[in-house]
């Protein structure tokens, strides 16, 4: 199969998870709608996609995810109330979420893993390269990771995944890659992938983070991929096939990301993300940082 080098315009955001780590907050509210300062986490992810030129966004959802659709839809009653009050600032922020991108939705149905969620996007994506963004990873807009990944694909074809270096004792929490350096700093050629290996069996300390630029050939591979770890269809397993057999859809490269990443999938890291982002806000930062200094001093 020849790897597709078409212009990339489509983003896929899997959002069917139950968010059990945040119960009871996620009993009736999707985890993607939990606020990070004053925007839901999912909006940061959509904004990242749009900034990278991805104007067509498909969310793969499940039961109880209707608030996601409502958030990116128009709320005419609220907009009119704000317009009548002359509150243009809040009106602009409300309208912003509904004007970000062309949004589409498909239900995953059975929760059969990330690979299955990506496969659900096949009818929408078609024979085009596309980007998968996982909502638990927020990438700071000052660090254009997707732009870098797109450039690597333009040069090498195939698929490109985002990586980061982690301590060896933490590698069991991530997918991990075996990789060889290329002539470009922080770009590697991937020869193998394994999902959450024991530290002593991990091929490197390079962990997969939630950004994938995929050739459409991955769909055919996913259709043939048997359930793996946890009885789920793993995207990692499909990428392993593409890495081992580049003729199926081009090589697999990795970009080692060294920028600012906020993990909202863990409760403690979620709190850290809120603090970091609040501290950097022009409207909140100065006062919040002063309070935080005083609070830390008192606690010590």
Care to describe what's here?
InterPro entries: GalU_uridylyltTrfase_bac/arc (IPR005771), NTP_transferase_dom (IPR005835), Nucleotide-diphossugar_trans (IPR029044). It catalyses: alpha-D-glucose 1-phosphate + UTP + H(+) = UDP-alpha-D-glucose + diphosphate. GO terms for molecular function: UTP:glucose-1-phosphate uridylyltransferase activity. The chain has helices at residues 41-51, 66-71, 76-85, 88-98, 114-119, 122-125, 145-156, 217-223, 235-244, 267-280, 285-299, and strands at residues 10-14, 35-36, 39-40, 56-61, 102-107, 130-133, 137-139, 159-165, 175-181, 187-195, 206-214, 252-256, 261-263. It has 300 residues and is an alpha/beta fold. It has two domains: 10-265, Spore Coat Polysaccharide Biosynthesis Protein SpsA, Chain A (Alpha-Beta Complex); 266-300, no CATH class. It has a nine-stranded mixed beta sheet with strand order 5-4-1-6-11-8-12-10-9. The chain has a two-stranded antiparallel sheet with strand order 2-3. Strands 7-13 form a two-stranded antiparallel ribbon. A hairpin with a 5-residue loop joins strand 9 (175-181) and strand 10 (187-195). The longest helix has 15 residues, at 285-299.
């Amino acid at each position: 199969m020849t790897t597709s080098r078409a212009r990339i315009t489509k983003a896929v955001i899997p959002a069917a998870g139950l968010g059990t780590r945040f119960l009871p907050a996620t009993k009736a509210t999707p985890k993607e709608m939990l606020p990070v300062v004053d925007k839901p986490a999912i909006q940061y992810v959509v904004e990242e996609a749009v900034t990278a030129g991805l104007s067509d966004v498909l969310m793969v959802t499940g039961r109880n995810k209707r608030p996601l659709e409502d958030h990116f839809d128009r709320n005419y009653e609220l907009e009119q109330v704000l317009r009548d009050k002359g509150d243009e600032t809040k009106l602009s922020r409300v309208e912003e979420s509904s004007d970000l991108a062309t949004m589409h939705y498909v239900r995953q149905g059975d929760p059969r893993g990330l690979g299955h969620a990506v496969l659900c996007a096949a009818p929408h994506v078609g024979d085009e390269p596309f980007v998968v963004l996982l909502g638990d990873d927020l990438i700071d807009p000052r660090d254009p990771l997707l732009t870098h990944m797109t450039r690597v694909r333009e040069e090498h074809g195939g698929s490109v995944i985002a990586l980061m270096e982690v301590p060896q004792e933490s590698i069991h929490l991530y997918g991990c890659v075996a990789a060889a350096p290329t002539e470009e700093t922080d770009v590697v050629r991937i020869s193998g992938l394994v999902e959450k290996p024991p530290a002593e069996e991990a091929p490197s300390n390079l962990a997969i983070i939630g950004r994938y630029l995929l050739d459409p050939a991955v769909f055919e591979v996913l259709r043939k991929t048997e359930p793996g770890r946890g009885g789920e269809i793993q995207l990692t397993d499909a990428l392993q096939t593409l890495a081992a057999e580049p003729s199926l859809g081009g090589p697999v490269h990795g970009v080692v990301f060294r920028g600012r990443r906020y993990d909202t999938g863990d409760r403690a890291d979620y709190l850290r993300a809120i603090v970091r982002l609040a501290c950097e806000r022009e409207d909140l930062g100065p006062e919040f940082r002063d309070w935080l200094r005083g609070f830390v001093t008192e606690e010590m």
